[in-house]
Amino acid sequence: MPLREILHKKDSLNVSAGRYADDRIPATTVPQITFVRSDTTSHEVIRPPAFDGDVDHPDHQYLDPVPPSPSHRKSFNPFRRSRAPSESSGSTTSPTRQRRLTHLLHLDRAGTRTSSSSSVNVPSDLLQVNGDKGDEQEREAQWERRATVLVQRNPQLAASCLSPTSPTGFGLDGAPSRSRSSSVNRVNDPGEDEAIRLHEAGDLERSTKMIECLADPNGANNALSQVLFGLALRHGWGCTPDPDRAILYLSAAASNSASIESEALQAGMKKGGAAKGELVLAIFELGNCFRNGWGVKKDPMAARQYYETAANLGDTDAMNEVAWCYLEGFGGKKDKFAAAKYYRLAEEKGSKLMGNSWIWKDKYNP
Fold first, then answer.
1. Does the CA dihedral 352-363-322-123 come out positive or negative?
2. Distance (Å, rounded) from C-alpha 358 to C-alpha 356?
3. What are the helix (H) ranges across 202-315?
4. Between vectors from CA 318 to CA 312 and to CA 320, what angle results, nearest 5°?
5. CA distances (Å), 258 to each of 71, 210, 282, in order?
6. What is the DSSP letter of 71?
7. CA distance 310 to 9
8. 124-364: CATH superfamily
9. Is the separation of the CB atoms in 285 and 227 below 8 Å?
10. Range in 145-159, 227-241, 299-313 the model is least confident about
11. At what angle do helices 276-292 and 316-328 cross, to 10 degrees?
12. Which of residues 109 and 256 earns the better pLDDT score?
């Protein structure tokens, strides 16, 4: 898709960098060995066995480390565990001394892994597409049906869609049956081409104004322009950043495209209709919003579901993102096999990431 050349993903994240925050350990003349036990949600320093004659070290050096400063990391840190204020005090009778073995081995944290097992942004009856076997066209049609359901039955997106009948273009209208006249089927729109040219030339302000006109739900109601204007609002390209307004336009683009694709699928078109490209773009960018909390509350599970849906409809950026989600356990359980599958798929389609040679090991073959 030519638009991939202009929609540079400036919001690429590196949330996995820096796994641990620095703990301040007092300097001594004798080197100290620190043992750390960690999982995907926390880390703790373990005290070695004590024997007669050993120097009695203060407890806080081992099981009650100094909490890291919030300024150390502004991005998601899977190893950082929230603490109550009382836990960070310098008490000499730390409750961590009474930890049970199951606590040390993290066997009593059943709720940690399942904390993101549900999401208000993911319909409960979302179509599940199982396996990679069977007819490729039919499987793609199932993923496209899943995409339309993901958008049309999300109450959060339905409440934020722009209403084409509102005088200002920003009315709330959650009715799925409202009439739309989106211009997604028009190819090489002159105004859109000029806006893209201005964007590439660095005239972001004029470009964004043109895109805003094309995205107007009371005007051209162009789904692709709604995606582009949503990105401009989110990142401040030629305008003041406004994440809340950005989610309105991205939701409108997804809803417009989903309506057209749903009609095409009902008509028996397995490959969908003319709005597939806009639908996939909108779903991927909404996944980024859920992942980072741009205009909406952070929702790891929704981000993963949106990424996976876009990935199975051909978006290589989404393939890499959902692979990362499976690899790190973001929004659900870890699954290195699934991570390798999506990393392989992205690499085969030309989106190769450095340092991923492990995905081609035989044990990850389907």
1. positive
2. 5
3. 204-215, 223-235, 243-266, 276-292, 300-311
4. 110
5. 41, 24, 10
6. G
7. 15
8. Tetratricopeptide repeat domain (1.25.40.10)
9. yes
10. 145-159
11. 30
12. 256
Domain boundaries, the chain: 1-115, 124-364
Pairwise CA distance, residues 185 & 272, whole Å: 13
The model's pLDDT over 88-124, given as tens digits with 9 standing for 90+, comes to 444 444 444 344 433 433 333 333 333 446 788 888 8
pLDDT of residue 331: 95
Tokens in use for 284? 């991927």
Structure tokens at 154: 């999300």
Query: Percentage of the chain surpassing pLDDT 90?
Result: 40
- The answer to whether the CB of 290 falls within 8 A of the CB of 299 is yes
Give the CA count within 13 Å in the CB-facing half-sphere of 28: 8
Query: DSSP letter string over 150-185?
Result: HHHT-HHHHHHPBPTTSSSS--B---TT------TT
For residue 32 the two structure tokens come to 């100290």
Q: What is the mean pLDDT of residues 243-266?
A: 91
DSSP-based three-state secondary structure for 294: coil
Give the pTM.
0.65
Q: What is the predicted pLDDT for the residue at 339?
A: 97
pLDDT over threshold 90, residue 87: no
Of 324, 314, 326, give the one whose Cα is nearest residue 350.
314
Largest CA distance in the chain: 84
3-class DSSP string for 238-253: CCCCCHHHHHHHHHHH
Strand 35-38, strand 43-46: pairing: antiparallel
SS3 38: strand
**Whether 235 contacts 244, CB under 8 Å:** no
Exposed / middle / buried, residue 63 (Cβ in 10 Å: 0-12, 13-18, 19+): middle
Core vs surface per residue 13-51: b (16+ CB within 10 A) or e = eebeeeeebeeeeeeeeeeeeeeeeeeeeebbbeeeeee
